[in-house]
Fold:
Amino acid sequence: MSNVKSLNRIQVFILQILFGVSIYIGSQGTGLDKVSELAVTVARYVAYIYVIRGSGEAIRLTHNAFRCGDSDGLTRLYKKNHAHYLVFAASVGYVLLSHASILGDEFLYLYVGSLIVKYIDMEKQKRAVSYGTGMACSFYEGYLAHMIPSDGHKFVGFEENIRMYESNESIKFPVIRLFIIITKDLYCPPDLKAFNKPNRPDLPYLEACKPLEKVKKDVAGVKKRVYRNSAYKVVRRAAPPLYVAAECATPLHTLHLVLSKKALYTELEDIDKDEVVNDFCTMLTSILTTNPDCKGKCECIYFDNTDPEANLAQVLIDRIREIEPNFEEIVRSKDCD
Structure:
């Protein structure tokens, strides 16, 4: 029995179709009129299901638009689910062309029944954690919690580590924060200079610097495990360079490697990367803004590395400007020392 493989989703779906067809044939027959009536009924119920599923999304979109100023939610939702929109439109169109009613009394019963089932699912989901949310928590507890706050003993903390670095290297960081780069396609290069635009000498670019002082801690049975942050110089034309502590989110890089080997990790072959990234960013941002040990010390930077025009160095400059509008004066004050 241990060698018997479980059915995949496609096989289960096909069996469900055959089951439904057999029930229909056994109860209704196969006359042309019956088939036509079935097609209209199925199209109507497909529309029902989409209306029921879409009502929750509509409520969330409306809330985000009025309370959070998110006016692009509908566009993002359409791009992600355009096939569903087409099926919904086709179903409604077919019912109308068949001169049948769109809504019947059965819609209310189906709607109430779906809410009951959804409530039960919600109770179960309270005990579940999404993939991206779990990775964000692990990233914080397994890495950032060791690198950002002071342990009151051996490690002085990220901010003091930056100040010691500034003193030793005779430089000045415009903002003392760790910039965590979150790429759209999850790819994280060994060196962030890979995101430079070598054919555009007019644009700012990144250069790797000497890393910050390493941190050694005994963790999970590993003695003197080494943790270290990276420093980069943002080189600008006709302006002093900017120094930043920046690195990619390693859990997302690990996921990128996993997804590149789908034959080995078949359970994750259909994972929604955009959803994972969104959950990861949302949870990590929540942790960093509510935890007093890290508040104001880390910054999540979403970078669309699939855009050929996007330049990470410029993205970092723009974020620095948002955090510290007077960053140019801070940098020049160091040059005058």
